[in-house]
Amino acid sequence: MASNLNLVRAKAAEASKVVAKNGSSYYKQLLEQNKQSIQEPPTVEKCQLLANQLFYTRLASIPGRYESFLKELDYVKHLWRNRRELKTEDVGIAALFGLECYAWYCVGEIVGRGFKITGYHV
Questions:
Q1: In this model, does residue 99 exceed pLDDT 90?
Q2: What residue intervals traverse the membrane (predicted)?
Q3: For the whole model, what pTM was predicted?
Q4: Are 27 and 33 in contact (CB under 8 A)?
């Protein structure tokens, strides 16, 4: 156990040296590449203004997203009414999608329990 801890410490020290050596140049390069996205002046007030704009823009987009959701729901209802005409491929894709959703749910539960399969702490 102690040897693993020393190994982790050595790796962390090595990583921090790399960041200290290259971090500043990477930061400058990143800002230069994305200067069109930087708002001037970079103040707290400007950040608050942008945060408010993002919030209210997203709030204003709710009716459009709700309308799109209703269209998707109508499509699913139509498919359900005409389920006898579905092709095997479509049913297979839907089954795989459902299986994937269930798998993500299971993985999320396992992660939420701290990667314990049974959920019990030993």
A1: yes
A2: none
A3: 0.48
A4: no
